Each structure stands twice: as C-alpha cells, then as structure tokens.
C-alpha cells in the first residue's frame, strides 16, 4: 500500500469517527438525583401521580442509577413549584407533574408561568371530574345541587383545589353555568390540594368537593364519600359505576383533566429525547396499565412534540371557556 493510500485510509477512519461524534454527543441520561416537583401538598392527585411515576421509573431503572426524589412545593396555584422549576434552566434533572391548571391558572391571571415558560415533555393520561359529598350528606344527587342553587347561589359551598377556573372548579361550574346560575355568587373556598379539600368535606366545613376520579377512588372505596355527579360523557366502571353523569341529570357538562410532565426551561434535544424514551417505556409497563384501569384513567400518552401542539390548542380552547365564565385576567406579575 502506498504512503498516499495509507494516509487516505487513516483520514477516512478519522472522518467516520468524527461523523459518529454528534450522535454520541447527543446521548444524555441523569447522572445525579432526579427531582420530581409536585405543585400541591401530599394526598393530592398530582402527588399520587408523581409518586407512581417515581416508583415505576425506579423499579424499571428507567433513570439509570440516578436516585429520584419527590419535592412538594404547594401554593400559588402551582406558581411556587413552577417558579422553582424555571430556576433550573437547561437542567434535565428537574421535572414536574402538570395538569390543565398549568394553563388555566395563567389564563385566569393567578400564575405568571405557563407551559411556554417550561419544557412540555408528555401527556400521560386523562381523567374525568366528579362531585363528591359526605356519605351521610342530605344531598342526594347533582340535580338537587342545581335546584338549590337556582333558589340561592350561596346555599352550598364547594371546596376547590387548587384554584378557581381549573378543571376541578370547571367540574361543578360548567353544570351550574348551564343551569343559568350566577357563578359569582357561589361559595368556592380554595384549598392547596384535593386531599385538604376532602378533609374539609369530611369535617363538615364544605358541602361538596369537585375532584378527579383518581383522587376520589379511595374515599369512595372507604365509604366516606358519595359521588353525586361525574362530568363524563357516559357512566364509568368499577367503583364509579353507580354514579350518574351530569348529562343524565340534565346538565351539559363534560370536563376532564389531563396529567402530564414538564421539565425545566431550555432543555436540550438530547434531554428531551431521554424523557421521551423513559416516559414511553413507563406507560407501557403492566404497573402503569393497572393504575389506568383501576383509576378509570384514559390512556392519552403523547410525546414532547405532540404535547407542545396539544397544549397550544388546549390553551386557546380553555381561554375561550374561561372568558365565558368571566375568569380571564391579565397574567399575574
């Protein structure tokens, strides 16, 4: 082999090695603790979702050898948690469970941040909103709630977690609005988590609590609450099979809440690709599928790119709805 040919072979090898560098450089995975930030207190739907994700990621080693911790930062309708997340730009080790509240709180002016200030990573599932009363409550059904509030909009109180205008609030507000009730005159104290709202309900401090099926399941199973309405298009199964829909009771109200995953702002394509892969694998596990079935959750997994498009469309639709409810304000500063 001539000297010039040997040089050509060496250069070709160098070129091939160099061409592989971008792909190698794109690989990313956690190399220190992953922090799942929860914007509500323990006992909420957000919290239980975060802990489920933590458990499956650890069990399947989808975060490699990195540890995974939960960091509850309730308050401000999620603003405290998302501000904390925003303070770690470009760091793929900081992620958070999100829901429609990330959009509605911004639209209603209760929070300065929304999905566009962070990195959308996934929609995990969808769940419908129920309205619960104490098991021994004299309120028999959702129709009774509507009839009583038609006479006096302040006759009953509804414990809402974690802000007005969010999906939990919409689970009752849409039915009341459809019945012509002035929502500005209703009593809707706000709590930092669904668990706190249920505690207030069981203590007799509020008359009803609108909340997700995932939140309500254990209380229904324990016999401490009754579901008087579900904002679903048809009846659900399992422990919710006897609960009537709003539609059955003459109210045009269908409300669901998605649970998703967002990261700190300015994540790299490699970091996004890592979370796409990890979360897709998570949603394919038997443990995850069992939770979907047990909680009446709809499988709505979307990757990062699909989630961004979905949130764009959902933000516009929610803004139109909240405008009708007179809940749209300039974002908080």
Structural description of this entry:
There is one protein chain. The protein is of the alpha/beta class and 333 residues long. It has 2 domains: 34-126 and 257-324, Bordetella uptake gene, domain 1 (D-Maltodextrin-Binding Protein, domain 2); 128-256, D-Maltodextrin-Binding Protein, domain 2. Helix content is 42%, strand content 18%. The chain is built from 11 helices and 10 strands. The protein has helices at residues 3-26, 45-59, 79-86, 101-107, 142-151, 167-178, 194-202, 213-222, 269-283, 286-294, 304-324, and strands at residues 34-38, 68-72, 94-99, 119-134, 160-161, 190-191, 209-212, 225-230, 256-263, 298-302. The strands form 2 sheets. Strands 1, 2, 3, 4, 7, 8, 9 and 10 form an 8-stranded mixed β-sheet that branches. Strands 5-6 form a two-stranded parallel ribbon. Strand 5 (160-161), helix 6 and strand 6 form a beta-alpha-beta unit. The longest helix has 24 residues, at 3-26. The radius of gyration is 23 Å and the shape is globular. The model is unreliable at 2-25 (pLDDT under 50).
